[in-house]
Fold this protein.
Amino acid sequence: MNRSLKEIKTPSLILELGRVRSNAARIKNVAHSNKTRLRPHIKTHKCIQVARIQTEGFDGAITVSTLAEARAFAANGFSDITYAVPIEPGKFSTASEIFRSGVKLNLLTDDLATAKALDEAAGTAGTPFDVFVKIDCGTHRVGVEPDSEMAIMIPRFISDAKNINFAGILTHAGHSYDAKTVEEIKAVARHERDVMVEHAAKLRGMGIEVPTVSIGSTPTMNHIDHLEGIDEIRPGNYIFFDNFQATLGSCSFEDTALTVLSAVIHRDITHRKIVIDAGGIAMSKDRGPVGLDPTCGYGRVLDLEGNDTGMRLTSLSQEHGVITDEDDGWLNKLKVGDRLRILANHSCMTAAQHTHYNVLENGEIVDRWEIHRGW
Ligand SMILES: Cc1ncc(COP(=O)(O)O)c(C=O)c1O
């Protein structure tokens, strides 16, 4: 039975289905018009139903950030999964178990010793993984620098290995989140693509076959001019977007699909503050676009219909969220028990705090979708 936003428990996640569908369509269009495959990163939502919307019309390939996600999605019919965090030996046996359940589980490394150990383990387990080499296109988080010796040695080793296959090269332009303008995002997007296309050409020139060149973040894939030479894209956050992406210019605020429903638990006219039941555990403490908007706090405060009240979630403790109302307008209107919605700074981090989504369509909660958390 459908329920209203006044009937469900707080704090909880509200997912606007219409926006999820249009965000999915937007990136499908980028993939279709550039003739690339789409392998969305499902770490943003960790939800089977959302992944089905994202992959509908494509081959069902997905990217995950934990082996728990890989296991859960494999159990729900997803059979081509890239685990896009560098593998380490402590996870070989779990990865093998998932592979043996009938899933094409693709792995990632930037470490020659690990590639060698994986080749050996795959030989023993009978699990011929496809393995990507992670290239650092400027984020400097993980990956090998494209002009380093290792950017050739590791692909060569995997290509020649007996028990694993070279899947290709993969990068993620995480530094697109540090951009201050859309022009800067566009420059990072071109660089992400060009570095990878050039590196693939270099490897091919040395006789190393490169089956797949894989790139993609939400800011870069929303602003890329063309994808010549790229085989697949892996954006993730775009399916929900959030306060960070809208402030950065990847989308508009009307595209953001995820909010946290919360209730007022205290009001204090003297100190001009409203306290809600969405604290750090319900929101995450991600500072989001603080570099672009120093007043962003921990999220934008919306009314029940989703309109921006102009207030921000200014501080958080575990179960309390404090909103400061400078002009008293809302403070006078609200009472304990009234409800507000918070547009989070970083939807991936916020979603990962919860067990399920309340799916909103035409102003009513029409469904409950599970979130598959864990490692
Ligand atoms: C390896 C990898 N691929 C793809 C993504 C998706 O990026 P975004 O959430 O910016 O779309 C991420 C995000 O962290 C990632 O780490």
Q: What stands out?
A: The chain has twelve helices and 17 strands. Residues 182-205 form the longest helix (24 residues). The radius of gyration is 22 Å. The chain has a mean pLDDT of 97.
